[in-house]
Sequence to fold (187 residues):
Amino acid sequence: MDGGLTQAESRELDARIQKRQVKEFMNVFGNLVDNCFTSCVDDFTSKALSGRENGCLSRCVLKSMTTQTRLGERFGELNAAMTAEMQQKMR
Amino acid sequence: MSFLGFGRPQPTSAEKIAAVENELKVVAEMHSRMVKICTLKCIDKTYREGELAKGEAVCLDRCAAKFFEAHQKISDQLQKETQAQQAGRGGGFGMQ
Fold:
């Protein structure tokens, strides 16, 4: 999918993609914090994370990472299949 | 394919880059929506375990497949409806 870009153009595209990836990572990180915090922390009688909350947060991070990986694999497969199908239809 | 663009001005560099970038953005957005939704539908929020349970893993796989199928179905249907609507309006019966 180079779309007939010149070398300079594809360098510019790479730079933009890199910027996007940084943003994307911050987004994923933010969602992870929000999701795990919401799921694990609901007791505000103390300002420190309790042992239970701490454990829950680490399990949440672990599980979310496995989830991300697994869904990433499925997404890759399904997206490739969908793209192939669309290209076939266009011919 | 460039001969199909006959008579059209050549896209500028910025336009070409934006087109590819946009395509990537659409895919990236679909990916992050899918992760959010399938996590919500499949993952037990108590986090008593740090590992994916078998049932959750299977649920994620099915959720991903269904998400794509739904995406395809809705996009096809929307396209059909829009075309039908445009054909109806283009029929030229003078109705608004």
Notes: The interface with chain A takes residues 2, 13, 16-17, 19-21, 23-25, 27-28, 30-32, 34-36, 38-39, 43, 45-52, 56-57, 60-61, 64-65, 68, 72 of chain B (CB under 8 Å). Residues 84 and 90 of chain B are 10 Å apart (CA to CA). The radius of gyration of chain B is 21 Å. The helical segments of chain B are 13-42, 54-90.
